[in-house]
Amino acid sequence: MGLNVTKKILKSYLLEGSMLPNEQITIKVDQTLGHDLTGIMAAQILESVQAEKVSTETSVFYCDHNVIAASSENTDDHMYLKTSAQRYGVYFSKPGNGICHFLHVQRFGKPGKVMLGADSHTPTSGALGMIAIGSGGLSVAKCMVGEGFKLTTPKVLNIKLTGELQPGVSAKDITLEALRIL
Fold first, then answer.
1. What pLDDT, in 10s, does the model give residues 111-134?
2. Own/partner pairs for 137-141, CB < 8 Å, 24+ apart?
3. How many Å apart are CA 104 and CA 134, to the nearest integer?
4. Distance CA 125, CA 130 (A)
5. Closest Cα to residue 121, out of 144, 94, 103?
6. Does 1.20.120.10 match the CATH number of domain 29-147?
7. CA spacing 20 to 30 A to 85: which of 3, 116, 125, 162?
8. Does residue 13 register a pLDDT over 80?
9. Does the pLDDT at position 8 exceed 80?
10. Residue 75 has pLDDT above 90, yes or no
């Protein structure tokens, strides 16, 4: 039996390790995502390692978590992200543009690519046929400067659904039920 899409993508991005179950591998990352909480850390790390430009194909800082200007700190953080984005070759999404994981799907996600995002909803981009992994700001920053991302080779399941959904049952309900069973 041939490789499934997930394993094909991982194999093509493999930097270290073998694709054996539960083995640690290191993969190349094409895209990164950070927001106005986690992106600050990534920008500070880029600054501390004296990076000139990011080495990823696409990196984006989104301002979508702290958008109410209750204090000047939010504005300061957003300006820091904007100037850091300009300095390092990162796209900047200003406050009010939308939610990072939805915007990334609409504007930057591509089938067959690998993305690491410092947002818990990063895997949303997996719906496009790409590997999309949520992580922390430190891991994202490391990938932005060319380091690979370490992970355990995932177990991939084939779940076959038959029949029709009952009224009021959504795809999310199916996902939650599958997770409950597993």
1. 999 999 999 999 999 999 999 999
2. 137/34, 137/38, 137/39, 137/40, 137/41, 137/42, 137/45, 138/41, 138/42, 138/45, 140/32, 140/33, 140/34, 140/38, 140/42, 140/116, 141/41, 141/42, 141/43, 141/45, 141/46
3. 13
4. 7
5. 103
6. no
7. 125
8. yes
9. yes
10. no
